[in-house]
Design goal:
Shape: globular
Order of helices and strands: HHEHEHHEHEHEEHEHEHEHEHEHEHHH
Helix content: 40-55%
Radius of gyration: 21 Å
Structural class: alpha/beta
Bound molecules: uridine-5'-diphosphate
CATH architecture of the largest domain: 3-Layer(aba) Sandwich
CATH class of the largest domain: Alpha Beta
Largest sheet: 6 strands, parallel
Number of strands: 12
Length: 406
């Protein structure tokens, strides 16, 4: 496990010193993060790094995970879909089940702290029965810019009780009766997923997956989720394949809080249609080193999402100096700028066009990928994320100062 000082060579001494200064200013504080899973998805990915680093900075930090029955995760997945704009059917009974499960969680979990940060909609209603003396912050990681109105109204009832909320982009913010902050997510350059790997390690992992042909590789790493558009990725690959030989790797697993993954994977398997150049890799939640190797080995990384909170897979690939093509949605547009740090696309045809372009313009691809890495270094590493959290905690101590800049 990396220590804060290990990041100095990556982000510079001043950034690290600043973290210690902020932590000293904050003083003794107990913080609890609450999320819905310890494995799978971007939230778990980030908390795995942030929690130990916050502790090292002297902020006593814990991470609690809620549990629920099958019905609970069905309704929270329906919330997720509805908040990102899809139509869903949610009955009154399902809403009651959501509240009951969180009431149970509130009675089991240790929520005694100075600051409680509740991640995403799944645990949002904990505040009904859990709020004691602590400041409660709702951290929303998904694109709630155009939510289905009924679901948002239901959730807003709880979100409004929080002392503050955090969104990943300003366009996700809402009319809420408390301060709202924008904090970008981040990746950890020293985690198993992002640390440097030797060519030997990468080759071994590829061999274990049975990937041995030398055709250019297009890769998408994602949970099997409709918003990640794996079927669209296959269509784009097929358009490219008409005149440029290549292979496609679609790799991902499920998240413990996502019951739809199996269904989407089944559809993807059908659409593979026996093409030996399409590799479908179903990954366990521990496959961090494997994802690292696949990303490092890819020629082009795709994240053709139709909706996206932020898209950490984009950040991860950019950090590894890969040319990335991303759907022009959510936080992906904060990361990719056309011809500078990658390409944004709006359609299957657009994705195919940009894949072909990159396969035939390797100098341009290299230059964009180099810019991409530097852009991530400045904006999307865990050290910047820690700084934002510490600054936010300090700002919470001064509610009268509306505009403490973080
Ligand atoms: N990820 C993983 N295993 C998988 C699929 C994804 O570890 O099978 C990781 C991926 O590398 C990234 C995170 O989960 O770190 C996904 O974050 P992102 O913001 O891209 O999407 P989310 O799943 O949170 O919608």
């Amino acid at each position: 496990m990396a220590e804060i000082k290990d990041y100095q060579t990556i982000v510079g001494k001043e950034n690290i010193d600043q973290l210690f200064r902020l932590a000293r200013r904050l003083g003794k504080r107990k913080v609890i993060h609450v999320s819905s899973t310890r494995t799978g998805g971007g939230v778990a990915e980030m908390l795995n790094s942030l929690v130990p680093l916050m502790n090292e900075l002297g902020i006593e930090t814990k991470w609690e995970v809620i549990t629920g029955d099958t019905g609970f995760f069905e309704v929270t997945k329906a919330f997720h879909n509805a908040l990102q704009g899809n139509r869903v059917n949610i009955s009154e009974r399902m809403l009651e089940n959501y509240l009951e499960n969180n009431e149970k969680n509130a009675s089991i979990l240790d929520l005694e702290a100075d600051i409680v940060i509740v991640h995403d909609p799944q645990p949002a209603s904990l505040i009904r029965s859990g709020k004691g003396r602590a400041k409660w912050i709702w951290r929303c990681h998904i694109d709630v810019s155009r939510p289905e109105r009924r679901v948002w109204k239901f959730l807003k009832g709880f979100v409004s009780k929080y002392d503050a909320s955090i969104f990943s982009m300003s366009k996700f913010a809402h009319n809420l009766p408390h301060p709202q902050y924008i904090i970008f997510p981040s990746i950890d350059p020293l985690s198993q997923k992002n640390r440097e790997l030797s060519q030997k390690e990468t080759d071994e992992i590829k061999r274990d997956f049975g990937i041995n042909n030398l055709k250019p590789t297009i890769l998408q790493i994602s949970r099997f989720d409709r918003f990640k558009d794996p079927l669209g990725v296959m269509e784009a690959y097929r358009l490219v394949k008409r005149n440029t030989d290549c292979k496609l790797i679609l790799a991902g697993g499920g998240a413990a809080d996502d019951p739809e993954g199996f269904e989407v994977l089944t559809q993807v398997k059908e659409q593979k249609k026996g093409d030996p150049d399409i590799h479908l890799l179903f990954l366990p939640p521990t496959a961090n080193r494997e994802i690292n190797a696949l990303q490092r080995d890819a020629d082009i990384v795709l994240q053709k999402s139709l909706k996206e909170g932020f898209g950490l897979t984009v950040t991860e690939a950019m950090w590894k100096k890969k040319p990335v093509i991303g759907g022009a949605v959510g936080g992906i547009v904060e990361q990719i700028f056309n011809y500078q740090t990658g390409f944004l696309v709006h359609s299957v045809e657009g994705a195919a066009y940009r894949i072909r372009y990159l396969l035939h313009h390797s100098n341009m691809a290299r230059k964009m990928a180099e810019n991409a890495k530097e852009y991530v270094r400045r904006r999307f590493l865990v050290t910047r994320h820690l700084r934002d959290y510490l600054s936010l905690f300090i700002a919470l101590d001064h509610p009268q100062d509306d505009y403490i800049s973080i």
